[in-house]
Design goal:
Structural class: alpha/beta
Oligomer: single chain
Number of helices: 9
Largest sheet: 8 strands, parallel
Radius of gyration: 17 Å
Strand content: 15-25%
Shape: globular
Strand order of the largest sheet: 1-2-3-4-5-6-7-8
Number of strands: 8
Length: 259
């Protein structure tokens, strides 16, 4: 049984000491591919380098994370886009992009403008979006509606919302929800929400090194642990783990055009 971790920050310094071993553990657990998002300009080169080190296994995404959007966002994107262009044959998505007003709205307009520019990249390059959104779903949805007919699709990463929020996001019919370790948390309401979401509209993710699932909570997260998310997902849907693996793999292929 093989499955895919659609979101891991494997380029991070947290993995510098044992990246090869981390990949080996992921493969042993059944992870057949990992997708790695950039978050800022320095991370772009790291992501590309890591993916070059594991060809056919690690796949890069390029984008500016909303928490990294500052007053100089135009300069950053001006530097980032040529790299995306030069690596168009490798890059599988524009990401990690979106809106994050959890801590502050200091750069609210800048985040909106930077997100919109990268949504245009998605349309231009026919690349799906890997979207991060915290405390900004209304603004995000309004922006995406303007491009809805032209967007190739994408993932609403780290979905933790309720039934109504899920339905609103899934009204974008080429998008899926990224489900990670939160599904396994004791106080999470996701186990009740998930059965209302069609199995053909979800993908697996870790967001490692963050948000390790139970029973690894409190430890550094890594791609091998996506198996725990898959197990809990199968329990929530009342199906076999193999069925979840097959369905989520099919969803990845559909969104990212990867065989």
């Amino acid at each position: 049984m093989n499955f895919i971790d659609t979101h891991t920050h494997l380029d991070g310094e947290e993995f510098d000491a044992d990246r090869d071993e981390t990949i080996a553990r992921a493969k042993a657990a059944g992870v057949s591919k990992v997708f790695i998002p950039a978050i800022d300009m320095p991370s772009v080169s790291r992501v590309l380098a890591v993916c070059d080190s594991y060809p056919g296994y690690a796949y890069p995404m390029i984008g500016l994370h909303p928490e990294e959007v500052k007053a100089d966002w135009k300069d950053v994107l001006k530097e980032m886009k040529p790299v995306l262009d030069a690596n168009r044959d490798k890059v599988i998505a524009v990401g990690e992009v979106g809106l994050d007003y959890y801590w502050s709205r200091e750069f609210e307009q800048e985040q909106l403008d930077a997100f919109e520019e990268q949504v245009r990249w998605s349309v231009e390059y026919r690349l799906p979006l890997m979207i991060h959104c915290r405390k900004g779903q209304n603004e995000m949805v309004r922006l995406l509606r303007r491009y809805e007919k032209d967007l190739p699709g994408g993932v609403f990463h780290c979905f933790t919302g309720n039934e109504k929020e899920a339905a609103e996001l899934l009204s974008f019919d080429k998008f899926v929800l990224g489900i990670g370790g939160v599904l396994t948390f004791k106080k999470s309401h996701l186990p009740e929400v998930l059965p209302t979401i069609p199995l053909d509209r979800v993908v697996l993710e870790t967001d490692s090194p963050y948000m390790a699932p139970v029973p690894m909570r409190g430890k550094r997260n890594e791609s091998a642990y996506v198996a725990y998310v898959l197990k809990r997902m199968a329990e929530c849907y009342g199906v076999r783990e193999e069925q979840v693996a097959e369905a989520t793999n099919d969803n990845v292929k559909r969104v990212f055009s990867i065989s």
